[in-house]
Amino acid sequence: MDQREITRLIGDFVATDPRNAIPEIPGLVIYEEPLVAAAAAADPLYDELKKEGIVGPHHLSPGQWLPGAVSVVSYFLPFSKEIVASNRVERMPSKEWYLSRFWGEEFNNALRDHLAGALTAAGYSAIAPMRTDRFVMLPTTSNWSERHTAFIAGLGTFCLTYSFITEKGCAGRFGSVITGLALPPSPRTARSLMENCIYDADGTCGDCIGRCPAGAVTPEKKDHITCMNFIAEKILTEYPQKYGNIYAGGCGKCQTAVPCARTNPNKSAIKQTP
């Protein structure tokens, strides 16, 4: 298998698997065509993630998940334009957004399994960290970060809200599989962790600040605890009753009705790293 085969495998799964849909809303596709990239398992940035203030010493490197790891496949699944558009209005998340967070992650898990299974069937060791019993989610972090892996693989950069802006925006979900297959690392052209964020670049925009119903986003940072408390106290107490005990976190307001929702607003500023 090579990069093209893996990209085609992921793209075909997104395009054809019937689970890329919301049962309660017939005809609504969750994800559009994905972005796919690869990182070297030995990339020194994985050691940086173990530092306090980045992720932390609890973050496991690819080799700790999979002995003999050589590469990490990282992908971004952009939410469909209909789902993103539905969440532009009102203070609370739309039905489409809320349900897509649940069913979309169910689909993402199926894709993780599909990719890892295909690699294994082709004779290469493979593991999706988030599909193992070793994966641990802590209050504001975890022992495997899909978004930091996306950065290492060159898919984009972070922004003021700590969302991750790709060439297809930030409204979507990430996935990754660690493998013993040798893949050429994708180019990492961003020169900083937040290069794609307009606000970080020149102080303009900041639309996500006013979009946050919890007041968790300020010109300085996003307060993850305030965000999480809002989700727990409002969304997860009201929405499961509406939609049959379906529990899905996130309101997505900071990822919709903003310039970075479905594109990289700072694309013209990206230059090749010297």
Structure overview:
With 274 residues, this protein is an alpha+beta fold. The protein has one domain (3-269). It contains 9 helices and 6 strands; from the N terminus they run αβααβααβαβββααα. It has helices spanning 3-16, 45-48, 62-65, 81-86, 95-121, 146-152, 198-202, 207-211, 224-242; strands spanning 35-40, 71-78, 126-127, 156-158, 164-166, 172-179. The strands form 2 sheets. Strands 1-2-6-3 form a 4-stranded antiparallel sheet, sandwiched between helices. A two-stranded antiparallel sheet has the order 4-5. The longest helix is centred in the middle third of the chain and has 27 residues, at 95-121. The chain starts with a helix and ends in a 32-residue tail after the last helix. The model is unreliable at 268-274 (pLDDT under 50).
Could you give the topology of this structure?
Layout (H helix, E strand, L loop, with lengths): L2 H14 L18 E6 L4 H4 L13 H4 L5 E8 L2 H6 L8 H27 L4 E2 L18 H7 L3 E3 L5 E3 L5 E8 L18 H5 L4 H5 L12 H19 L32
